[in-house]
Amino acid sequence: MDDLRLTMNDPSRPWHKRAIDAVKVIPSIAGAYFTGGTSAVLIKALTTYAAQFFVEVGAHGDKQDALKRSGLYYLLRLEKFHER
To answer: Secondary structure of the chain: what % helix, strand, coil (to 5)?
Structure first.
């Protein structure tokens, strides 16, 4: 039960992976600035971070699917409901 609770409360992706993904974008944004100016930077940032957003959504969905496959997931949800 404790392992399931720990898995349920852990983030979908660790903070260091999110930070690395954010830093990997900087060289491409800098290149966009030198080649196309501020509008190119804006477009590059939006397209790159939109892709990162979908990675985060997918990771969250994968975590929820893994939790729901466990038969004890509903017991933890019931426990949270009774705490309120």
So the answer is: 85, 0, 15
What is the number of structural domains in the chain? 1
Q: Which tokens in the block code for residue 55? A: 């990675």
Containing domain of residue 54, as a range?
2-83
Question: Which pLDDT value is given to residue 1?
Answer: 62
CA dihedral 27, 28, 33, 35 (to 10 degrees): 120
b/e 27-46 (16+ beta carbons within 10 angstroms → b): eeeeebeeeeeeeebeebee
Q: Read off the DSSP letter of residue 25.
A: T
Please give the share of the chain, as a percent, with pLDDT higher than 90.
0
pLDDT surpasses 70 at 4: no
18: which DSSP letter? H
